[in-house]
Each structure stands twice: as structure tokens, then as C-alpha cells.
Design goal:
Blueprint (H helix, E strand, L loop, with lengths): L2 E3 L9 E8 L1 H8 L12 E6 L4 E5 L11 E7 L3 H10 L2 E3 L2
Antiparallel strand pairs: 1-3, 2-5, 2-6, 3-4, 4-5
């Protein structure tokens, strides 16, 4: 599966699509250090897959970056990104 990461990938108007249960270290292994942080987010990665789908992985309203297993939020423009993120990280991804 080909993909690229970076701060310059457009994510405006994307929203929560699901979750991936994994550790911070696992995400860093596949995607490197987080690319963004903000008011309610300590760590965020932005991914653009070869099929054009865009996904974000982020924590939400945590006091610090979760290091143990955590239900990371998956954002995007449709729920098809949930499976893509799960496959990429070799982790359990799901919607609620």
C-alpha cells in the first residue's frame, strides 16, 4: 500500500470516521513522529493513500500523548479510511 504523509495534505472539513486501537510507538514505527498538534490534540498524523483517500490519526482531549494502547481517532472524508488505517498499522480499526 503506497501513501505519503505531511503537513501540506488538505484536511479541512474532515471529521471522525472511526478508531484504531494501537500504541504511539506502533504509529511512529510506520509514520514517523507526529506532524501536528493543537489545542485539543497532542499528536496527529496526516496520510494520503495512493487511491486519493486522506486520513488523520490523532488523540483527543488527553492531558499528554498516550503512550500505551489507546483508541486513536481516525478522521477523514468517509469511513473507508478506517480499514486503510488499520491495514497500514496492522492494528484493529473500527467504527462505533
Amino acid at each position: 500500500m503506497k501513501y505519503k504523509t505531511g503537513k501540506n495534505i488538505e484536511t479541512s472539513m474532515s471529521c471522525l470516521q472511526g478508531y484504531v486501537k494501537t500504541t504511539y510507538a506502533n504509529i511512529v514505527t510506520f509514520l514517523g513522529d507526529p506532524q501536528k498538534s493543537g489545542d485539543k490534540v497532542n499528536a496527529e498524523w496526516v496520510i494520503k493513500f495512493e487511491n486519493g483517500r486522506v486520513a488523520t490519526i490523532y488523540d483527543w482531549k488527553e492531558p499528554s500523548i498516550p503512550k500505551d494502547e489507546y483508541e486513536w481517532h481516525i478522521g477523514g472524508y468517509g469511513d473507508s479510511v478506517v480499514a486503510l488505517v488499520g491495514d497500514l498499522l496492522n492494528a484493529e480499526a473500527y467504527t462505533r
